[in-house]
Design a protein that fits this description.
binds D-gluconic acid, alpha/beta, TIM Barrel, 40% helix, two-stranded antiparallel ribbon, eight-stranded parallel beta barrel
Length: 447
C-alpha cells in the first residue's frame, strides 16, 4: 500500500463514555442514571448485564492513562457522568464527582494527552427522567447549570468540548424504538426530546461564548453513509429522504436551516409538532467550532411507499456482529457528503471502529478484521482530506472493550481487551497497529 500521510498536527486519539467504562455506580456520591434503571428492568439488556462494575475505570484511572501513554495516544475523548456531578440532576453539587474528573484531566495533561470532554453521553440522572427527562423543557435549564459547572471547573485545562453524543440515537432508539434507556416508544415524546436536545446544545454553546471560554466546542452526531440503490430518480429521492430523517435532522438546525421540511411534516401529521418557541432556532444555530462525526457503516436506500418513503436494501457486503455492513468507504464518503452539504466545517472523527462478537481471549486479541477495516476507514478518510475536507483528528472507538449498551458485554469494540473477571487490560493486535499509525502519522507500507 502506498504511504498515506495525514496533515501535520492531525490528532490521533481514542474514545470512551462514562457509563460504559467507569463502574463504581454506587460510589463517590454518584446518583442513579436512567441506565442504572434500564439495566435493572428484565429483558432490556443482554444477559442482564449492567454498568455497575464495567471496566472499573473509576478505580483504575491512573493505570488507564498509563495504558494510553504506552499506545502513544495524543488525545482522549471521554464523557462526564452527569449523576456524578449532580446526583439529582439539579440541586446539590457533588464535589467528589468533580474531583474524579480533576484527577482524570490532570493525569491526561501530565501524560501529554489532550482531553476532549463530552458533557452528555446518555446517562441522564434518573431524578430528571422522573420529571419527564428530555421531553420536559425544564431539562434545558438543568443542562445549562451542569454545563456551566464543567466549563468553570475545567476552563483552561480542557480545550475540546462536545455538548451531546449522538442525539439521533438518544431520540430514535431511546424514545421511539425504545431499545435504549429510557425505553420509551412515542412520536409525541420523541418530537419534544429532539427539540430539547438541540436547544440544550445551543444554550451550552451560547454560554461557552458568554464565558469567553478558551478552546473549541461542537456536537457529535451519529451518521450512516447513505447510498441510493441506483441512480433512478425514485431511489435518489428516497436516499435524500433517509438523509433528512437521519443526518439532516441534527445538522440542519445547527447550521441555521431549521428542521428538514419532510421531518417537520412527519411529526406534525402525527399530532406531535416540534415544540419550537420564539428564539429557539437562532439559539440552536449558535456557531460551533467543529463537528464531531461518528460513523461505523453505510446503508443502501430504496424507495418504498411505507411508512416514510424509503427502506434499506439487503446488505451486499459482509455483515458484522453488530449488524453493520463491513463498509470501509463509509467514513470517507460521509465526511465528503457532510463537508459539501454544510460548507466544510472543521471535523473531528469522534468515533469509528468495529465490534467483535465475544469469543476466546486468543481470538479477541488477534483482531485482524478490525485492523483491516480500520485500514480501509483511514484510507478513505485520507482521500477525503486530500480532496479538501477539513478533518483535524480521529478518535477510535474504543480504547478498551466495555459495556455496549443493550448488547451488554457481548460485543467488543476495544483496541485493548478487557478481562471482565480480573479486569486486566491487554492490548490487542489492533492496538499495536494503531500505535504505528500514530507514530507514522498515517498508513505506511509497514502498517
Ligand atoms: C454510539 C456510542 C458508543 C457505542 C459505539 C459502538 O456511537 O453508539 O457513542 O457509546 O458504544 O457506537 O456501538
Amino acid at each position: 500500500m502506498a504511504s498515506m500521510q495525514f496533515p501535520e498536527g492531525f490528532l490521533w486519539g481514542a474514545a470512551t463514555a462514562a457509563y460504559q467504562i467507569e463502574g463504581a455506580a454506587n460510589e463517590g456520591g454518584r446518583g442513579q442514571s436512567i441506565w442504572d434503571t434500564f439495566c435493572r428492568q428484565p429483558g432490556r439488556v443482554r444477559d442482564g448485564a449492567t454498568g455497575e462494575v464495567a471496566c472499573d475505570h473509576y478505580h483504575r484511572v491512573d493505570q488507564d492513562i498509563a495504558l494510553m501513554r504506552d499506545l502513544g495516544l495524543q488525545a482522549y475523548r471521554f464523557s462526564v457522568a452527569w449523576p456524578r456531578v449532580y446526583p439529582f440532576g439539579g440541586g446539590p453539587l457533588n464535589e467528589e464527582g468533580l474531583a474524579f474528573y480533576d484527577r482524570l484531566v490532570d493525569g491526561l495533561l501530565d501524560a501529554g494527552i489532550d482531553p476532549m470532554m463530552t458533557l452528555y453521553h446518555w446517562d441522564l440522572p434518573q431524578a430528571l427522567q422522573d420529571r419527564g427527562g428530555w421531553a420536559n423543557r425544564d431539562i434545558v435549564e438543568h443542562f445549562e447549570t451542569y454545563a456551566r459547572t464543567l466549563f468553570e471547573r475545567f476552563r483552561g485545562r480542557v480545550h475540546r468540548w462536545v455538548t451531546l453524543n449522538e442525539p439521533l440515537i438518544v431520540s430514535q432508539l431511546g424514545h421511539l424504538a425504545g431499545v435504549l434507556a429510557p425505553g420509551i416508544r412515542s412520536h409525541e415524546v420523541n418530537a419534544r426530546v429532539i427539540h430539547h436536545l438541540l436547544l440544550a446544545h445551543g444554550k451550552a454553546v451560547e454560554m461557552f461564548r458568554e464565558l469567553d471560554m478558551p478552546g473549541e466546542i461542537g456536537i457529535t452526531n451519529a451518521n450512516t453513509a447513505y447510498e441510493p440503490y441506483d441512480e433512478s430518480s425514485e431511489h435518489l429521492a428516497a436516499c435524500e429522504l433517509a438523509r433528512d430523517f437521519d443526518s439532516r435532522l441534527f445538522h440542519d438546525p445547527i447550521y441555521g436551516r431549521g428542521y428538514p421540511a419532510s421531518v417537520h411534516k412527519f411529526y406534525a401529521e402525527r399530532g406531535a409538532p416540534f415544540p419550537i418557541e420564539p428564539g429557539d432556532l437562532p439559539t440552536i444555530a449558535t456557531p460551533t467550532d467543529f463537528l464531531g462525526v461518528n460513523n461505523y457503516s453505510r446503508r443502501v436506500v430504496m424507495a418504498d411507499r411505507r411508512p416514510i418513503g424509503f427502506r434499506f436494501a439487503e446488505p451486499t457486503l459482509p455483515v458484522q456482529p453488530m449488524g453493520y455492513e463491513e463498509a470501509p468507504d463509509s467514513l470517507g464518503d460521509f465526511v465528503r457528503w457532510v463537508s459539501k452539504e454544510y460548507d466544510s466545517p472543521p471535523i473531528y472523527i469522534t468515533e469509528n471502529g468495529r465490534g467483535d462478537e465475544d469469543g476466546t481471549e486468543a481470538a479477541m486479541l488477534n483482531d485482524q478484521k478490525r485492523i483491516e477495516l480500520m485500514r480501509g476507514f483511514l484510507a478513505g478518510l485520507h482521500d477525503a482530506i486530500e480532496s479538501g475536507c477539513d478533518v483535524r483528528g480521529y478518535y477510535a472507538w474504543s480504547l478498551m472493550d466495555n459495556f455496549e449498551w443493550a448488547f451488554g458485554y457481548s460485543k467488543r469494540f476495544g483496541l485493548v481487551y478487557t478481562d471482565y473477571e480480573t479486569l486486566e487490560r491487554k492490548p490487542k493486535a489492533s492496538a499495536r497497529f494503531y500505535a504505528d499509525v500514530i507514530r507514522d502519522n498515517g498508513l505506511t507500507g509497514a502498517t
